Amino acid sequence: MERSGDIAVTGMGLVSPLGPDKESSFEAMLRGESGIALLEPQRKYKGLGTRIGGQLKGFRPEDHFSAFARLQTHRSTQMAEVVVRQAIKDAGFEIGKRGVFAPDRKKSLISGTSVGGMVGLPSEEWVLARAHYEEWSRAASMSTLRSLPERSATYPAMEHGITGPVKQESGACATFALVLSEAEFRLNYRYTRNGLDENDPDATDADLIIVVGTDAGISPLMIRSFNVLGGKEGALSRRNDDPEGASRPYDQYADGFVPAEMAAALLLEPRELAEARGAHIYALYLGGADTCDADRATAVNSNRLADTYRLTLRRSGIIIAKRIDIAFNAHATSTLPGDKGEATAVKIAFGDKAKDIPISAMKGYFGHGLGPCAGGEIVMGLMAMEKQIVIANRNLHNRIPEAEGLFLVEPELVDGELRYYRPWKYDVMLKASSGFGGINSVHAFRLYQ
Hints:
The two termini are 26 Å apart. The chain is 31% helix and 20% strand. It has 13 helices and 17 strands. Strands 5-4-6-7-1-8-17-16-9-10-12 form an eleven-stranded mixed β-sheet, with helices on both faces. It has a two-stranded antiparallel ribbon with strand order 2-3. It is of the alpha/beta class.
């Protein structure tokens, strides 16, 4: 597949534990705030080993949806629709009647979720109780619609008249990154068989794609499941007495990741179309690479991950031999096996240059958003790249030995106050993602100039 041209990021949306939109989330991050707290309602999580998490801040479904729409949709679907709206408006498109926008464009939407509507499913008893007061068919249909993971793709598509390819994907914690790879393929691929010319409108799937990731996976069942994963201590932090200090990527005293809710969206379109309509371009998406360790389900294969970094650089045309112009947006989850494996992979891939590449791990601010985590971190990373700053690592007090010699960005004391970012000139942001099952997905973005 040959690239048909540069892909522009012209719209972004985000709801996170730091705020209900990308602006408030970014400002909170620059202030060094944490979105992690004791889970509410606390009685629901009483007795669990982990009682902390990153729940959305300032997100009220009733502000966006009717009572009937809320009944039809799971929280993760509602979050997806909100960030899609944000991205459309952010890209400068007007949302018209019945939610339709850009009627002259070939639009596609690809969404991803790790758990989707399966968490918080109504119980059989709930459905039967509803059926006592309503027709059985209505109660059952509401339960079915709420639970379908594909609703985070099809619901926004129906709301906004998106009639091109609409897909739902899942790839554990690398979900958003895999969806981004699919979007690149859809925007660049040309069907030229059977006499179709590459310039024929029917030779392309879309000239505008919205990439979405969403998960509202926090529940007692999810926490219990992760708390027995990987051994006695489980995969989640049990630092319930210090929620804001619990998520600590690359720190040797990290005791697990902190679950979080999150949804993110990027609106992608060919650069020439974006420039022609005078759109604001956050960055150019250069592409990426996906691989699989084909090894242990919950471990990182550092050599294979390093191969993914190198493959992304080659495909994106990035050469770091002459000067360092890359900032590294890490996956780092605050789990020791994962963080050690990723730090080792960076050293393998970049060699002597690794010490000069600033590394930011954003899960110290809002926890681990599961499937959409890469999306939220890309949004924050692109906003930082526009400002030519790199985000500091939060809660990094005692770095793991594998990270010695790496440039892990740390807060700076400026005029008597800690500043959680550092000015830095760079042209490219490299975003890494990994997921259970040995999934690796790495992507590159270039500063638009």
